[in-house]
Design goal:
The chain has a domain of 69 residues. Helix content is 66%, strand content 0%. It is globular, with a radius of gyration of 15 Å. By secondary structure, the chain is mainly alpha-helical. It contains 5 helices and no strands.
Amino acid sequence: MYWAMPTSAFRSLRTLWEETFRLGLTRPGFDNMVVLLSGWILTQGAHAVTEALVMTGVAIRRHHEAFHRFFSRGTWSPDLLGRMLFRRGSRASLTVRNGCPA
């Protein structure tokens, strides 16, 4: 079953992901991550790579191997992305604590 993500929600998420993770990934790696994250948001049940591709409609256009390679041979650092995510969360937390929306 395929559910479409509302365009405005996808744009907001993509902007957030780009601001948070873009510098830690190659362009193809970032594009693959966007597909996987979007698919996992849309997935109900097992959050497997192939299920994420089915949910985003990518499974009929591209082979799943490229997305599995994202994890096994991608040129990105989980530690770097973790630090980037932590910094983003810290900034958002400080902004909210100071009375401003994130």
